[in-house]
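Help needed: design a sequence for this.
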């Protein structure tokens, strides 16, 4: 009985302790909620490290089978990119615009190895769902799965263009 009471107290105290430590960390690191302030190394590191496994887990088995690739789909992907994505990622997908340079995290160079490491399903998931608390919106309510696959394939092609 006494063990159960102590366990309950500990379980109730853990969130309070965690919040206190988080508040202390924010206070000591000068954390700012402003999007104009450059994020610190610790914040950037933690956000980047958390994103990869979370997207990977979410993308597993959740995306539909991609349609066959053809020239029409490649053109469609490029057109969708220019209309929806170039405002932040730049017309070439590699040079973020002024808007993209001031997002946090910054709009990615989509041809970079860091972006090209994502699997096709992960790229599809990111485009479809977006990533909360970043500037990356989800397009799943605006575009069909076929359109999103065309965009994902276009993003993939930016990596091969950079290798040429």
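Sure. Designed sequence:
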């Amino acid at each position: 009985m006494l063990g159960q009471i102590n366990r309950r107290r500990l379980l109730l105290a853990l969130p309070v302790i965690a919040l206190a430590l988080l508040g202390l960390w924010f206070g000591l690191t000068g954390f700012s909620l402003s999007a104009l302030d450059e994020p610190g190394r610790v914040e950037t590191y933690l956000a980047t490290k958390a994103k990869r496994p979370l997207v990977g887990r979410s993308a597993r088995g959740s995306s539909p089978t991609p349609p066959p690739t053809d020239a029409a789909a490649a053109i469609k992907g490029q057109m969708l990119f220019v209309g929806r994505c170039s405002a932040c990622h730049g017309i070439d997908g590699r040079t973020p615009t002024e808007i993209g340079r001031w997002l946090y995290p910054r709009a990615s160079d989509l041809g970079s190895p860091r972006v090209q490491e994502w699997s096709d399903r992960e790229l599809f998931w990111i485009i479809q769902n977006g990533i909360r608390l970043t500037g990356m919106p989800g397009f799943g309510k605006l575009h069909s799965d076929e359109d999103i696959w065309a965009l994902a394939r276009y993003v993939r092609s930016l990596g091969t263009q950079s290798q040429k």
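The chain has a mean pLDDT of 85.
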